[in-house]
Amino acid sequence: MIQVLQKQYALLQGSREVVLNFIETKVGADLNTPVPAYENSTIRYLLVHTANAYFQWLLRFAMNKPLELLSDGDFNTISLIRPLFQQVDDTMAAFLENFSDQMEIPLHGTLSRNREVNATPLQVFTHVLTHEFHHKGQIMSMCRLLGYTPPDTDVIRF
């Protein structure tokens, strides 16, 4: 099973790279432009929020490691955001290695605001991937609202 999950994550990484390249080459400084339709949120905010979600679920919840969430204000360029996603990739690799033969065991933990959660590593894996795709769609919509035509960012690109 673990090889399938690694391949699935690799597909997501390819999609993410399309997003980051597009933002880097076309959107540029508008990475930091508030978008009124998204409660004045920024693309930068959603990218850092996505990384924080990986860290919170994989490190804090699943692997019981201490965690301080990152502030999006510290990541105002793609060149600062790319290493953040390298950390996400490293965290995912450690998570998959740690739970390689235990993807169905129940985990119990506490998330921010003292939320008690029960989930298997497979559920956590699925959650963080779908969470990233959810926000990727929002980011592409934000790009369109800022005047940029986004590329196809699905895992199967036509």
> Number of DSSP strands?
2
Give the neighbour order of strands across the main sheet.
1-2
Element-by-element helix/strand order: HHHEEH
Structural class: mainly alpha
The gross shape turns out to be: globular
Total helix count? Answer: 4
CATH topology: Four Helix Bundle (Hemerythrin (Met), subunit A)
Q: Tell me the count of domains.
A: 1
CATH architecture: Up-down Bundle
Return Rg in Å.
16 Å
CATH superfamily annotation = dinb family like domain
As a percent range, the share of strand residues is: 5-15%
Helix content: 55-70%
Identify low-pLDDT runs.
none
Average the pLDDT over all residues and give the rounded result: 96
Q: N- to C-terminal separation?
A: 28 Å
Helix-strand blueprint:
Blueprint: H1 2-27, H2 43-62, H3 78-98, E1 107-111, E2 115-119, H4 121-145
Helix pairs in contact: 1-3, 1-4, 2-3, 2-4
What does this entry look like structurally?
- The chain is mainly alpha-helical and 158 residues long.
- The chain has a single domain (30-145), classed as Up-down Bundle (Four Helix Bundle (Hemerythrin (Met), subunit A)).
- The chain is 58% helix and 6% strand.
- The protein has four helices and two strands, in the order αααββα.
- It has helices at 2-27, 43-62, 78-98, 121-145; strands at 107-111, 115-119.
- The protein has a two-stranded antiparallel sheet.
- β1 and β2 form a beta hairpin.
- α1 (2-27) packs antiparallel against α3 (78-98), α2 (43-62) packs parallel to α3 and α2 (43-62) runs antiparallel to α4 (121-145).
- The longest helix is centred in the first third of the chain and has 26 residues, at 2-27.
- The radius of gyration is 16 Å and the shape is globular.
- The two termini are 28 Å apart.
